[in-house]
Automatic annotation (TrEMBL):
<dbReference type="InterPro" id="IPR006034">
    <property type="entry name" value="Asparaginase/glutaminase-like"/>
</dbReference>
<dbReference type="Pfam" id="PF00710">
    <property type="entry name" value="Asparaginase"/>
</dbReference>
<dbReference type="InterPro" id="IPR027473">
    <property type="entry name" value="L-asparaginase_C"/>
</dbReference>
<feature type="active site">
    <location>
        <position position="12"/>
    </location>
</feature>
<feature type="domain" description="L-asparaginase N-terminal">
    <location>
        <begin position="3"/>
        <end position="176"/>
    </location>
</feature>
<dbReference type="InterPro" id="IPR004550">
    <property type="entry name" value="AsnASE_II"/>
</dbReference>
<dbReference type="InterPro" id="IPR040919">
    <property type="entry name" value="Asparaginase_C"/>
</dbReference>
<protein>
    <recommendedName>
        <fullName>asparaginase</fullName>
        <ecNumber>3.5.1.1</ecNumber>
    </recommendedName>
</protein>
<dbReference type="InterPro" id="IPR036152">
    <property type="entry name" value="Asp/glu_Ase-like_sf"/>
</dbReference>
<dbReference type="Pfam" id="PF17763">
    <property type="entry name" value="Asparaginase_C"/>
</dbReference>
<dbReference type="InterPro" id="IPR027474">
    <property type="entry name" value="L-asparaginase_N"/>
</dbReference>
<feature type="active site">
    <location>
        <position position="84"/>
    </location>
</feature>
<keyword id="KW-0378">Hydrolase</keyword>
<feature type="domain" description="Asparaginase/glutaminase C-terminal">
    <location>
        <begin position="204"/>
        <end position="308"/>
    </location>
</feature>
<dbReference type="InterPro" id="IPR020827">
    <property type="entry name" value="Asparaginase/glutaminase_AS1"/>
</dbReference>
<comment type="similarity">
    <text>Belongs to the asparaginase 1 family.</text>
</comment>
<dbReference type="InterPro" id="IPR027475">
    <property type="entry name" value="Asparaginase/glutaminase_AS2"/>
</dbReference>
Length: 325
C-alpha cells in the first residue's frame, strides 16, 4: 500500500464563486472527493493553508517548505495543491529545500472548484498518480505533463496548459483524467536541486526590472529597505542599462550578491556584451542560466539563509551541479 499526503493550500483549484469574487472554499477532503484513488493507494487529506497564492508572504512559503519536509518523513509521497499565480516560486523553494528522497509534486487549476468543467480533478488525479509512481524529487504536474520544479514558468493567464519549462521540457506525461489509474510515460529525470534545509525565515531579496532608461534608483532603494541581495530581471541574454551596471558593480564591491536573470521568458543568460552583461560578469554577478527572475530570487534567498558566509559561492556551486549555469 502506497501512502500519500495531499497538502491543500488553497488557490483556484479550491475556490468557489462569491459576490465579491472567487474565494477559497474547498478543503483537502473536498478536493480528494473529486478523484478516484484506487485500492492500492491511501491518500490522507491535510489542510495546510487556505489562501489565494498571491496573498502568501515569504514566511508563509518558508513555513510550507518546512511542512512539506516534515510530511515527507511520514509518507511515501506528497501532493501539494496550490494557486497558479505563485506556483513556480513555491516549486523552486520546495526543490531547493527538499531532502531528495520523497516524491513531491505540486498541482493546481485554472478553473475554480465549482466550474461546470473544472480542470482541477484531472490535474489532481495526474499528480497523485505521479506521486505514487515514486520518482524522488520535486515536480509540477499540470495539464497532463510532469515538469521539473526548477525552470518551470507560468506561460498563460487562463489557458489550461498554463505551465512549461521552456529549456527543459516535460519529464513525463500522466494520462487518465480524474483517477489515479492511468499511464505514466517518463522522458527524463531532473537533477537533485537541493541546496539546504528549509530555513526558519528567508532574507529579503528584491527583483529589479530592466526597461528603457532604467536608472539605479530601484537597486539603491531595495538595499536601503533591507534587501540582502538583488536579482536583475535583465534585457535579453543578460544586459542592463549603464546606470544599473554601475550600481550593481558597487553593490558587489560591498559584498551584496547580485544575480542576473532574463525578463524574456525563455533562454539562458550570459555575459556577452560590453557595457552590459560582460561588465556584470566581470564585476562578479551570478548569471542564473534559464531561471526566471522569480526562481532566481528564491535561489539567492536560500543561499543567503543556508550559507551566509558565502551565499554567492553556494549558489554558483548549486548552479553548476544542477546544470543551470
Amino acid at each position: 500500500m502506497t501512502r500519500l499526503a495531499l497538502l491543500a493550500t488553497g488557490g483556484t483549484i479550491a475556490t468557489r464563486a462569491t459576490s465579491e469574487g472567487r474565494a477559497v472554499a474547498a478543503t483537502a477532503r473536498d478536493l480528494l472527493g473529486t478523484v478516484t484513488t484506487g485500492p492500492d493507494v491511501d491518500v490522507v487529506p491535510i489542510d495546510a493553508a487556505g489562501r489565494l497564492s498571491f496573498a502568501a508572504t515569504l514566511d508563509d512559503v518558508a513555513a510550507l517548505a518546512r511542512t512539506v519536509r516534515e510530511t515527507c518523513a511520514a509518507y511515501d509521497g506528497v501532493v501539494v495543491t496550490h494557486g497558479t499565480d505563485t506556483l513556480e516560486e513555491t516549486a523552486a523553494l520546495l526543490a531547493l529545500t527538499h531532502d531528495g528522497a520523497t516524491p513531491v509534486t505540486i498541482t493546481g487549476a485554472q478553473r475554480p472548484f465549482d466550474d461546470a468543467a473544472p480542470d482541477g480533478p484531472t490535474n489532481l488525479g495526474a499528480a497523485l498518480r505521479w506521486a505514487a509512481y515514486g520518482r524522488p524529487g520535486v515536480t509540477v504536474t499540470f495539464a497532463g505533463q510532469v515538469l521539473p520544479a526548477i525552470g518551470v514558468r507560468k506561460i498563460h493567464t487562463s489557458a489550461l496548459s498554463a505551465f512549461a519549462a521552456p529549456d527543459r521540457g516535460p519529464l513525463a506525461s500522466a494520462d487518465g483524467g480524474g483517477s489515479i489509474d492511468g499511464a505514466i510515460r517518463e522522458h527524463a529525470v531532473a537533477p537533485d536541486a537541493s541546496l539546504g534545509d528549509p530555513p526558519a525565515t528567508l532574507p529579503r531579496v528584491d527583483v529589479v526590472a530592466q526597461y528603457v532608461g532604467a536608472d539605479a534608483h530601484a537597486l539603491d532603494a531595495a538595499v536601503a529597505a533591507g534587501a540582502r541581495g538583488i536579482v536583475v530581471a535583465a534585457f535579453g541574454a543578460g544586459n542592463a542599462t549603464p546606470a544599473v551596471v554601475e550600481s550593481a558593480r558597487r553593490l558587489l564591491e560591498q559584498h551584496v550578491p547580485v544575480v542576473v536573470a532574463s525578463r524574456t521568458g525563455a533562454g539562458a543568460v550570459e555575459g556577452l556584451y560590453a557595457g552590459g552583461g560582460a561588465d556584470l560578469a566581470r564585476a562578479g554577478a551570478l548569471f542564473a542560466g534559464d531561471l526566471s527572475p522569480w526562481q532566481a530570487r528564491l535561489l539567492l534567498a536560500v543561499a543567503l539563509a543556508t550559507a551566509p558566509d558565502d551565499p554567492a559561492g553556494a549558489a554558483r556551486a548549486w548552479a553548476a551541479r544542477t546544470g543551470v549555469a
